[in-house]
Design brief:
There is one protein chain. The chain has one domain: YefM-like domain (YefM-like fold, 3-Layer(aba) Sandwich). It is built from 3 helices and 3 strands. It has a 3-stranded mixed beta sheet. Strand 2 and strand 3 form a beta hairpin. The longest helix is centred in the first third of the chain and has 9 residues. The radius of gyration is 25 Å and the shape is elongated.
């Protein structure tokens, strides 16, 4: 991880982004205090289940027609 100050990040943004594409990470600091981290973007894996959404279960067929009682009274 490379440290850069805000002025340097603003001045060299294009070259920093080029290095990020290669896998490098940057920590942007203001007066020596970290304020942002630039990391390479990871494309989501569509075959891996979401850790929270995988716990949801549907115990009925959502495509099945409703009965007259479930529809209720129509006016």
């Amino acid at each position: 991880m490379k440290l850069v100050n805000i002025h340097e990040a603003k001045t060299r943004l294009s070259s920093i982004l080029h290095e990020i594409e290669k896998g490098e990470t940057f920590l942007i600091c203001r007066h020596g205090i970290p304020i942002a981290e630039l990391i390479p973007h990871k494309k989501a894996d569509r075959l891996t289940y979401h850790p929270v959404l995988r716990k949801i279960s549907v115990n009925y067929d959502p495509t099945e027609d409703l009965t007259q009682e479930e529809w209720g009274e129509t006016e």
